[in-house]
Amino acid sequence: MILPINPTHPEPRKIRRAVEALEAGEVIAYPTDTVYGLGCDLFNKKATDRLYQIKGMPSSQQLAFVCPDLSDIARYAIVENAQYRVLKHFLPGPYCFILLATREVPKIVQSKRKTVGIRIPDHEVIRAITRELGRPVISTTAARPGGDPFVDPAEIDVEFKGLGMVLDGGPGGLVPTTVVDLTEGYPKIVREGAGPIDELI
Description:
By secondary structure, the protein is of the alpha/beta class. The chain has a single domain, classed as DHBP synthase (Alpha-Beta Complex), CATH 3.90.870. It has six helices and ten strands; from the N terminus they run βαββαβααββαβαβββ. Strand 2 and strand 3 form a beta hairpin. It is globular.
């Protein structure tokens, strides 16, 4: 089901419908500040398994998740002062920061090193969803493994069978997030993407 939504001032009733889909264990697609994402409730293992299946990706591929704001991150990741300064400077924005996970984080989204990827996109739709849901949403690019991101919500709806909802906030981007490892305390670029990196190096 495709649900058009205002990307800058999302309608509360549509956000509520998206949250109800997540609470029911559905996988949804939504716009972010970079590419369209596919996601589900961080704490629903069945939904997470379904997300892997719908995207057709190996279970070894680590998933990131979206928090609504910085105050949430400390619940799910170990953040020292130096790391917090970096996060505060670059978020919300087109970055995914890798941090050490706290015990709150389900094992399925942790790497073997017990790290997690955390995003706060500069996009009101997905942040409104996570605020209303009250917990993070797992997020992965709306793309087939190794392929380019899909930019058209109608194509996403056709390509990924089994989605509970596609929130249509207009055409998406083609460049995914910049991934930055902060586990050593200083920024290390893992993947260069949409966000500028000159201040991170």
